[in-house]
Amino acid sequence: MLFRRGEEFLTRSGLRDLVILLSAVSAFFFKVTNAEIVTAFLVLFVGSFIHFIAKGVLIRNEVLCKEGIYSLIRHPYYFANYLVDSSFCLMSGNYYLFLLYPFLFFSSYGPTMRKEERTLVSIHPEAVDHILSTPQVFPDSRSIFNVKHLFSGFSLTRITGKEVARILRFFAMGILILAVHRIPWNSIGRITEITTGPWIRISVLSLFLAGAVLYGANLLILKFTNNR
Length: 228
Fold this sequence. Notes:
The protein folds into two domains: 1-155, Four Helix Bundle (Hemerythrin (Met), subunit A), CATH 1.20.120; 160-228, no CATH class. Helix content is 60%, strand content 4%. It has helices at 12-26, 34-57, 76-92, 95-123, 127-133, 161-181, 204-227, and strands at residues 193-197, 200-203. A two-stranded antiparallel ribbon has the order 1-2. Helix 1 runs parallel beside helix 3 (76-92), helix 2 runs antiparallel to helix 3 (76-92) and helix 3 (76-92) packs parallel to helix 6 (161-181). The two termini are 27 Å apart.
């Protein structure tokens, strides 16, 4: 569901779907440079990496997570989502969408973060100190020094198949948005090889196939995980 009555104006999953849709549509009308493509994929990689690390530290509700990446920010998982969605906005070439996204993010995630922290304090009263001393979503000049403890408390056993599938889906969407950019307008019915710069030459078909393969792998992992 994209919109929900009540506290959340825009659901988190709905926001992701909206960003992907707007990014894909924008790719038809806005150009993107090689530098922007590289930047977008770097942001996507960092977001996926933080997603992975946060999942490997989190023990939801049972333990108050204050070590590792949770010593930098209180909601690293949501920060990762912010980076992933921002990478799609960058990939679209639509800077209006990129500038609009922070407002959409906090309208969607703000109520969830407040609700989760109220629940956390009710279970772990000592969480108040962590909330008061640690930034919510973005690291500050003090907490950033805790990056040296990034892997503290991390365990691969907490990484589920769903998390791996989710990361594959992130990259599939990024590649598919790039593929839309590369469709030649003068022969939209034919997938032809086109030049993206002096250092790379790639076909639209290859991009769509790569995105489809990653998305298919995501579905297979989800099916295998759900059947276990």
